[in-house]
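Ticket opened by: R.M.
Priority: normal
Category: complex prediction / small molecule

The reporter submitted a protein together with zinc ion and asked that the result be attached to this ticket for the collaborator who will pick it up next week. Submitted input follows.
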Amino acid sequence: MSDGRELMARLGPSTVKFDTGRGGAPDLTNQDIAAALGMVPAGLGRELLEALWWPDSGMRRSQQLRQAVIALVAPEYVRQQQALNVARTEFGIAKACMGWAGGPVTDAQRIEHRKAEVRLEATRALCWPNNTMEQLGVLAKAIVEEMSTCGCCRACQGLRIQAAKDGTGIVECEACGGAGVEARSGRERAAAIGADHSAYRRYWQPVYEWMLEHMRAAESIAARDFNRMVSRAA
Ligand SMILES: [Zn+2]
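Result attached by the on-call engineer:
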């Protein structure tokens, strides 16, 4: 990746000047780079930027990264649990209404009961595992590791696009799904979170992919901000 992230990766204790490779532009010192980083809005993106590209700082800031990951995942987990509670309550009501107080069970009640059951199943199917929050540290660690080790997609060279097979133009790269980076296999992800492959596919894949997508997006916005600050400093 030929961007400011590489400058960050070279941040160290010295005050060596780095050539920005733009011939004639003033070189950047560590202080310039650290100052540019300081101007990137605080939050998940900046924490990931540091964890991935400036590991020394990332290690000192693991608590901030943890807080940012919790702030990302907890609201969605709570929203799912609330939706599940509502669906469960509605199913309970529909069940109670069948033959209420010893009366006859009507067709309308049966239909309502069936509908509530379908809604409950559909809501449950979209929920992440109950122990998602307990496993958050393991998930986050595996995802940061995937983000730090996976290189550019070989099919599109990180461009995220490919020529359409029917020659009608350009479509999203099939190999990486438009992410521009190589993806780990389900087996590799399962091993990274200490689950077997079938448990990963059945329970963990949706939350893993959701977190990866949101964390990548946050890091790439922070990297864009950082690049802007670096070019201003140069
Ligand atoms: Zn690709």
